[in-house]
Design a protein that fits this description.
Two copies of one chain form a homodimer. The first copy, chain A, is an alpha/beta fold and 212 residues long. Helix content of chain A is 37%, strand content 18%. Chain A has two domains: 180 residues, 3-Layer(aba) Sandwich (Rossmann fold); 28 residues, no CATH class. Chain A is built from seven helices and eleven strands.
Amino acid sequence: MNISMLVYPDMTPLDLLGPLQAWSLWPGCDIQIVWKNTQPVPTDTGMAVVPTHSFDQAFAEPDILFAPGGAAGTMAVLKDPDVMEFMAGRGANASWVTSVCTGALVLGAAGLLNGYKATTHWLALDLLPNFGAQPVKSRWVIDRNRATGGGITAGIDFGLAIIAEIDGEQAAKNVQLTMEYSPQPPFQSGTPDEADAETIAAVRSAFEQALS
Amino acid sequence: MNISMLVYPDMTPLDLLGPLQAWSLWPGCDIQIVWKNTQPVPTDTGMAVVPTHSFDQAFAEPDILFAPGGAAGTMAVLKDPDVMEFMAGRGANASWVTSVCTGALVLGAAGLLNGYKATTHWLALDLLPNFGAQPVKSRWVIDRNRATGGGITAGIDFGLAIIAEIDGEQAAKNVQLTMEYSPQPPFQSGTPDEADAETIAAVRSAFEQALS
């Protein structure tokens, strides 16, 4: 599997690391971390990551093309013609076009979700129709060759689901056990349906500040 | 909160990203990514990460000191006197001494788990008594000011648990909702107690190859 995973300034790195760690444990994968150039890219955690390949060096016809999300950083790449041209071009040639979190907005802005069911971070779900996509409230959504995951931590579930979809259950089970993925969230606070009103208000407020 | 998070060559970056992403959403944290120098550090996914501070520049008395795990990369740092000296020195001055996955072996080799209950990746649990630690099969373990998480993905649960422990439930719930942490693992294959024999054998074999 030839995999190209986009990175960009101020992205949310856990969006990337769920599928990246899972797929790096999937035998036979050749994974590229791609950006305009191979200089370190800052993330919203303060830690920078280093692309392995520039856009020019990326697989022409990747088996999987992937976009992670973020907040202000994502809004910036939606307006970046170099990123849009890269995603649209590689997306047209990719076997699978995928995202986690607001990475779905990157796919959408590149014209890659028009007519597809998709998901994204719960705070951004209402934006998907702007790109012709049909929003689905789900941990991950597979519609033909488009696969989208929900917010941030959904990338782990999404990454395992893609392995199962392409390579079968046993391959995904091996990776799940290697990653010791038997989650025990300390609270019931992972979605707006589970969380209390005080928590939802606090998170919405912080999100609006991050984008302002 | 002043937080120093160790990185090192061939570490498992998802071990780091669980708590790093959670803590970066925790108001008032100043997070350092530390290594011997600030050159990019390769990880076991093929993607490098960039330290923000060298050992010399790291907080003298961090509120939280953290070590991630890995396979061969972890075995190498256990024998690295510079890393052991840094961890032992900062660990003696830290309010909290913490790890995810085989990062517990790094704490242990630096003398920081002697007499403490701790956990680590299920494949490494039997190694903890070598460092005077008492192994506990649990998603995370808090014993006085030592906090250790299980394998790889346990870092998310661990990261949220630490926020709750230090700053209360509401702070942790806010971060959990922001990270949309309502996991839906595709299979029951996250621990050796859940997984089938074929999966356990495959993962043990891959682990032995990785260390050989």
